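Reopening this ticket.

The earlier resolution said the output was attached, but the attachment link was broken on my side. Pasting everything inline this time so it's all in one place.
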Amino acid sequence: MKKISVLLTMMLVCSFWSLPADAQDIDVSKKYQEPIGQHIQFYRNKEAHLSMQSAYDAFQNGDFSQSSDSVLNFGIGAKPVWLAFRVRNHTHDYVLRNLLLETSWLDKIDVYHFHGIQLVNSYHIGDSQLFSQRPLNHRFFVTEHNFGTGDTTVLIRVESDDAMVLPIYFLTAEETADRNMLQAYSYGLIYGIILALVAYNFMLYIGLRSAPYFFYSLYLLLFLLLNAAYTGHGYQWLWPDSPHWQQWSNPVLIMMCTLSGCAFALNFLDIKTASPRIYQSVIVCCLSFSVLTLIAILTDKFIITLFISLFFIFYFYILAVILGIISLRTKNRFAQYFLLASIFTICGGIITANAVWGFIPFNWLTYRATEIGMVADAILLALALAERFNINQSEKLAAEKRADIDLLTNLNNRRAFYKFVQPMWAISLRSKSSTSVIILDIDDFKLLNDNYGHPVGDLVLVRLAETIQKEARSGDILARWGGEEFLIFLPETQLTDAITIADRMRKRITTIQISIDNDEKVSFTASFGVATTQDINVSLNELIAQADRQLYHAKKKGRNRVYPDLSD
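Inline output:
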């Protein structure tokens, strides 16, 4: 009985230790929707140029280490690494499967397939090659292989100066296409939103010549190019024949995007006015980072360039918050939008950076956190710029209105009178309809000013303007013509009707009483001159001159009257 117990224990222990070995193998009959990192073993040797055969022998000898993560991550500037896993096919047919390395910036990838001890297939890919040299047209690195019956060992060598993060998928061709299509839809939505905002803000810049709109358009466009660079869309669609630019695009575009972001922040928040010293300091820092980056590029120091650009973008994250707070303290109403947008961008950028560097799990959410944060940033800042545009337009319209309005009486001034009347005058000439003009003048206004002071005189002008506005018809155009003179344009109005309207206004004016400090009541009168078009060739100014002559007659005949006088 004791021997049986020992035997059972040994069998249990052996089966326990055999589980990981079985778990490491990929079965072609199963589906693997998640990265297969936990099925992969890796080998990091001090010898950078370890041969394929030596690596295969090391795997067979058990020198590889088992990965515990679904996504392998070896960080920035890691030495070349060898990966290996076994694929089992229990069927009697060949089974086609794709190997998808869902990272776009890997320099060199060598994939070998061994059936037994025989090398049956190999691929040599990476973004150091032309895009057209890839076995499949895909923004990531995809290889395909027909796995025969039995065990196949897949050996992979990866080399990259950039972050060596390796989400590896084992998929059917249909699963690869479906995964790519789903991602294409999501990127199409994001790129569409950002491109629409780029076009919208650039058109606003063309129309308004306001620097924030230009820098924001540039910032969004450079972010779009940066995103296309590190997602592989850029190499697939924009620069497929430029592997050298593909290698350097990430740090260069990070630097350019960050510089445009700084320029936008300084202009949008008006930091030059809010804090000139900080404005100058930011300019100096941006120039310093740019010079360091240029030196690193010219000396072909890729890793140094990458670290400078990454440090610069984190500097920008901190700077954005500081600038937002400074602007908020100066009562800039748009600073709150900027701060909230910066928080989204910072959170997204930090999550993605930590995922790429291996500090947090790498998945679609952490990898695309920057894009999600940037879309939120773009929408918030677009709302801020739209509100800024509306405010600017409102202020512009208000300024134009103030330019057309007499500020004391709130009536049109001469400029506005001609602007509104000229089209109506042209219509009346074409239709040969009667058009009348009334000009009125306060009687003895200088004496009133001398006796009671200019404040009372201003009040008289205001009350008179209110009165004639109430008595005028809806289509009539009123204006303060100058001093105590007022002008009324009456379209499609004959002389008798114009005189009736003028006389009604005159009578209403005589009823106005203005109280002054000693409870004295001040009243006043006005004289009116009326003229109507009799000749089709008369001009508007000639008609006004006729009305002015009639006003002179009204004054001469004793004031407080309308001339011509129908009662004569």
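Reporter confirms the inline version is readable. DSSP finds 17 helices and 19 strands in the chain. The CA atoms of residues 438 and 530 lie 5 Å apart.
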